[in-house]
Amino acid sequence: MFNIILLPTDGSDKAMVAAEQAVALAKVHQASIVSVVVIDPFPYIGLGEASAFGLQAYLSEAQAAAHLSLGKVRVLAEAAGVPFKADTIERNAVYDGILDTAKAENCDLIVMGSHGTSGMKALILGSETQKVLTHSAVPVLVIKS
After folding, report:
1. Residue 127 above 90 pLDDT?
2. Quick check: helix, strand or coil at residue 1?
3. Pairing relationship of beta strands 32-39 and 4-8 according to DSSP bridges
4. Measured at the alpha carbon of residue 93, what is the angle toward residues 88 and 97, in degrees to the nearest 5?
């Protein structure tokens, strides 16, 4: 039924609950997992060399965190024998990055947690999850975490 499952992640414990479910679902459907970390653009606008240094430090740290997050999912997928692909992208809005990846990778399902680690949380669902649900052209499975 499903061939390519998109799994957005931020590496949090809550995201890993969704990852476990996505991998199990992929195994049952003989599907593959595409996992993505969406990095927010550099949040500081400054002048001079401090800005360039700050940008490089921010991007290095964000890329390292993304690598760790995707590595956790890779371990789960490989243990289950599920084909896995990872991507890290930068977007102004996290949900746009998720939806762009779903389209680019021809995903037929998005699996994500109900809350991530962002500071802004909606009352019932995480704000990014709510936006993906609202704008997605493919089905979205929300894992309560």
Report:
1. no
2. coil
3. parallel
4. 40
Q: What are phi and psi of 27, to 5 degrees?
A: -65, -45
What is the percent of the chain where pLDDT is above 90?
66
Separation between Cα atoms, residue 97 and residue 80, nearest integer Å: 27
Domains and CATH numbers, the chain: 4-143 (3.40.50.620)
Q: How far apart are CA 72 and CA 38, in angstroms?
A: 16
Structure tokens at 138: 């493919």
pLDDT at 7: 98
Mean pLDDT estimate for the chain: 87
Query: φ, ψ for residue 120 (rounded to 5)?
Result: -95, 115
> Which pTM was predicted?
0.87
DSSP-derived letter for residue 114 is S
Q: Collapse the DSSP code of 106 into the 3-class scheme (helix H, G, I; strand E, B; otherwise coil) and give the result.
A: coil
